[in-house]
Design a protein that fits this description.
heterodimer; A: alpha/beta; Ubiquitin-like (UB roll); Alpha-Beta Plaits; Rossmann fold; 5 domains; 24% helix; B: alpha+beta; 3-stranded antiparallel beta sheet; two-stranded antiparallel ribbon
Chain lengths: 750, 160
């Protein structure tokens, strides 16, 4: 089909509207309410254009094209229509641009400069709307609102959670939250981007800088394995805000709140800025140039004294791929085999038959091609908020979503059927279960990170493998950290080296390292309070070992108490790095801000150790080229093989104790993001107990849980009827007072 | 030929010098116009642009709202501002520095200011004894504003 815009011929598809053709061909039409990912309402009337043969100017966003349509975006009729619309839009808009954070990037400002009149005929009083405190992340100035309703449509169509609405009519029209609590969506930050004026603004960025002061740096999200693309805006070497970087394959134009506001964790008060070394039981400050040499001496003297099997090393799966590569490279060259990144897991029997790396099994863009998506032990709304957008899209294209979990949680997309059962029941269900509606269709089974916490993970994975075969489904994984894929593929596991090559003599895994009384422990980028499956086992082995070396960005109480060497390393934004997302996509980024001068770039610290041991020195480019050559050899589509050993079902009648991954405590950076932890979701920190295990009649308000021969008294808990039987769920995994390990079987004491 | 003769006579009788000296001779007996600075001063235009000042509203509230337009418009990059949200929720500056050595006294900052906060007073006599004093901060600027508010007001009225 052909249409003419300003007398130039353009190709167009029959189902397009004028504005779509214009946008594709870079013809500028002013607009406020239209957004390419939202439905069309044609309420702002800013995109009026003249169409030949039509008496009045028509909105370009809602007018479908016709063969040989002649449109003019520059004629006097169009200009007159746009000018009049602009005059009406500006009637009630306040003239407070000098204090408005949107100024400089404001669509209203730009459009009124180009299409508006230079004076106003309006002499009456302007409308004033009372502000609402809708969220700790979004500041409002509703007098500035021009009622484009983008935020309302976003909540309804994209986030799947309609929290803002338009109430009243005409002069009294108002955008407001339906409930007092305001906006609680995990994607709420996108409304800030969508708002064409300064009505919805970033609360953290309030009055900090002007838009023209900011420098924009691309980076990849370190908070989940999706790998959203972000732009950080930097003012005076400080990150002041984050906006999405458009990537149609991953996050489109959206960003979850965790990715948008998580950077606050970099500025936490407990950041570690000095190198320290323990002398005579006190930590003493060391020059940052000497600490690497001291650490090197410590590792080497330990190697001389003991065998290399007495040294254990842990690395966080939130580290960059470069750090992961250098970490295992250094340790393996020194002969140390005990390397693991799976600190949150307990059961490792599965590891020999595990795929090369956990992978979603398809591209994020292809999710809508599946007939059924079966979620196992994962709550997309709180764990991978950005996938909510994709699953909402998929559901609109007739994908059915099923969910199996031990905890009943809301999702922001329609779920066909929810199965809420405890660990044992799920396990026996998967042995025989066949979802009849999934037969002979294209299915995807998505295994979430909560499964990896289980103390019977291997049995579970095998049962899931059987289930997947029963219903003829693909298996995909979602991982705990943003770079768990690198952990596997770059050899940060005890039984495989870089590229997933199998080792004949595997080292000790994370659980074994903590149980085997090692003499030296190396921790890289880990938060010992929260990042380990069993915190008391960790403390026990820290006490027993002679030398504890911590490479860390944060100074936590455990580190201060047990560390012999503390190397302050950079966070993700302070050094060059790369993450491999769950699709296997390798994404690199450069340093965004320069850290305190005592902080050492993570990969440089490891590289320095390499050099001190007379090994090859690397630059960031040489690491990346090595990584890309390794990755190019790997077949990412390799099938999952978990069907080797026979496992017995644990039919004990014990109580299941699980820790949910809490949305704003998934990693050490987001845990320290202040504003995120003030949101409604973050306040949801509690212990839930199923009704059948708590005897109400005795009127006691204390629950005694026996875990590993230790008794924990829980006094603040909630009884929930929607929990499966014999279950205790910790909604937040980081309260060590009440728990020892993340997921296990416990018994109750009367 | 005639031109050549005229030129010769002119140079022979030093006509140009006599012409020039006649002005000197006339001025010799007139009242001198030299201004005895600093005892005497020349009149200043009400548009004169001298030392900067930050003004306040009559109730004592500072005018500046930290919009940073003066910083953006300054051709010499002499102004540097940091803003914050004051405890009452308004937008205010926490740093407002002007480097007087960089400043070219063009007056763009005055023009850009939406609230008439930054102004250039008529003060032109100032000096520093330390190089660091060339940067004046918000406190200094507000003090200058307080001292010269009345004159400023008068000038602004004169300008209409």
């Amino acid at each position: 089909m052909k249409i003419y815009i300003n007398n130039i011929e353009y190709d167009a598809n029959p189902d397009e509207t004028i504005i779509q053709v214009a946008d594709r061909n870079n013809i500028k039409i002013p607009r406020f309410c239209y957004h390419k990912h939202l439905s069309v309402v044609a309420s702002c009337r800013m995109c009026l254009v003249e169409i030949e043969g039509v008496k009045f100017a028509q909105p370009a966003c809602s007018t479908p094209i016709k063969e040989d349509m002649r449109i003019s975006t520059k004629s006097s009729k169009t200009k007159e229509a746009q000018k009049s619309t602009m005059e009406f839009l500006l009637i009630n808009h306040p003239l407070d641009c000098p204090i408005c954070d949107q100024a400089g990037e404001c669509e209203l400002q730009d459009v009124s400069l180009k299409h508006g009149d230079d004076h106003s005929k309006y002499l009456e009083f302007k409308r004033v709307v009372v502000d609402k405190d809708i969220s700790p992340l979004i500041s409002t100035e509703m007098t500035r609102c021009i009622h484009c309703s983008r935020c309302v449509r976003f909540g309804e169509e994209v986030a799947g959670n309609k929290e803002l609405g338009l109430i009243n009519r005409g002069e009294f029209t108002e955008i407001r939250a339906f409930i007092e609590d305001g906006v609680s969506s995990e994607l709420s930050g996108n409304m800030i981007d969508l708002c064409p004026v300064g009505a919805l603004n970033n609360k953290l960025y309030s009055y900090k800088a002007r838009t023209w002061d900011l420098k924009q740096h691309p980076i990849i999200s370190p908070h989940d394995c999706i790998g959203s693309n972000i732009f950080y805006h930097v003012y005076n070497n400080e990150i002041v805000r984050a906006i999405p970087k458009e990537n149609s394959d991953i996050n489109q134009t959206w960003l979850s709140d965790r990715d948008r506001f998580g950077y606050q964790g970099i500025y936490s008060k407990d950041r570690c800025y000095v190198s320290k070394h323990r002398k005579n039981k006190t930590l003493e400050r060391v020059d940052s140039q000497d600490i690497i040499k001291k650490v090197n001496n410590a590792i080497n003297s330990s190697l001389d004294k003991n065998t290399s099997s007495k040294i254990g090393s842990f690395i966080s799966a939130q580290s960059t791929s470069e750090e992961m590569f250098l970490f295992q490279n250094l340790l393996r060259k020194l002969g140390i085999k005990n390397i693991d990144h799976r600190t949150n897991e307990r059961d490792f029997d599965y590891q020999d038959t595990y795929p090369l790396m956990p992978s979603l099994g398809c591209n994020i863009n292809d999710l809508s091609e599946y007939d059924n998506i079966i979620l196992i032990g994962v709550n997309i709304k709180t764990e991978y908020p950005i996938l909510t957008v994709r699953l909402n899209e998929s559901v609109k294209q007739d994908t059915k979503i099923y969910s199996y979990h031990y905890f009943n949680m809301d999702e922001d997309f329609p779920v066909e059927k929810k199965f809420v059962m405890n660990n044992t029941d799920l396990l026996s269900l998967f042995q025989e279960h066949t979802l009849e509606s999934c037969r002979n269709k294209k299915n995807l089974l998505v295994i979430g990170p909560n499964i990896t916490y289980f103390s019977n993970q291997s049995v579970f994975l095998q049962a899931l493998d059987k289930f997947a075969k029963n219903i003829n489904s693909q298996i995909g994984y979602l991982t705990d950290f943003c770079n768990s894929t690198s952990g596997w593929i770059l050899g940060n596991v005890p039984h495989r080296t870089i590229g997933g090559v199998k080792l004949d003599n595997p080292g000790l895994n994370a659980t074994e390292m903590l149980e085997n009384d090692l003499s030296t422990l190396i921790f890289y980028n880990l938060d010992p309070e929260n990042d380990f499956h069993n915190s008391s086992a960790l403390i026990n082995s820290l006490q027993k070992s002679e030398c504890n070396i911590f490479f860390t960005s944060y100074l936590t109480p455990i580190i201060e108490k047990y560390a012999d060497y503390i190397v302050p390393i950079s966070t993700y934004a302070e050094s060059d790095g790369s993450f491999i997302n769950i699709e296997g996509r390798f994404q690199s980024f450069n340093k965004v801000i320069t850290p305190n001068s005592n902080v050492i770039d993570g990969w440089r610290a490891l590289n320095e150790l390499n050099i001190l041991n007379n090994h090859q020195a690397y630059t960031i480019e040489s690491i990346r080229s090595e990584l890309s050559s390794t990755l190019s050899k790997i077949d990412f589509t390799s099938k999952i093989l978990i069907d080797k050993k026979k496992y017995e079902l644990d039919k004990s009648t014990k109580v299941h104790k699980n820790s949910l991954r809490h949305i704003y405590s998934t990693d050490q950076i987001v845990r320290r993001a202040k504003s995120l932890n003030e949101t409604i979701q973050a306040n949801n920190k509690s212990v839930y107990v199923s009704r059948d295990i708590f005897d109400d009649s005795e009127n006691k308000k204390i629950l005694k849980v026996v875990e590993n021969n230790r008794v924990f008294k829980i006094d603040n808990f909630q009884i929930r009827d929607d929990l499966p039987s014999r279950t205790i769920v910790y909604s937040s995994s980081f309260n060590n007072k009440f728990t020892e390990s993340k997921s296990t079987f416990v018994s109750l004491k009367k | 030929m005639i031109d050549k003769t005229k030129k010769m006579i002119k140079s022979l009788f030093l006509v140009e010098i006599v012409k020039g000296l006649s002005i000197t001779g006339k001025k010799l007996f007139k009242k001198p116009i030299t201004v005895q600075y600093p005892e005497e001063k020349t009149p200043q235009s009400s548009r004169f642009r001298g030392l900067h000042a930050l003004r306040r509203y009559p109730n004592g509230e500072e005018r500046c709202i930290g919009c940073k337009l003066c910083e953006a418009v300054c051709p010499a990059l002499a102004i540097s501002i940091d803003t914050e949200m004051r405890s009452d929720g308004t937008r205010r500056t926490k740093k407002y520095d002007i480097d007087l050595f960089k400043c070219v006294y063009c007056g763009f900052c005055e023009e850009a200011c939406p609230v008439d906060a930054i102004v250039e007073t008529k003060i032109f006599e100032f000096h520093f004894e330390d190089r660091n004093e060339k940067v004046i901060n918000k406190n200094d600027l507000l003090k200058i504003g307080d001292l010269y508010e009345r004159e400023e007001l008068k000038d602004r009225k004169n300008l209409g």
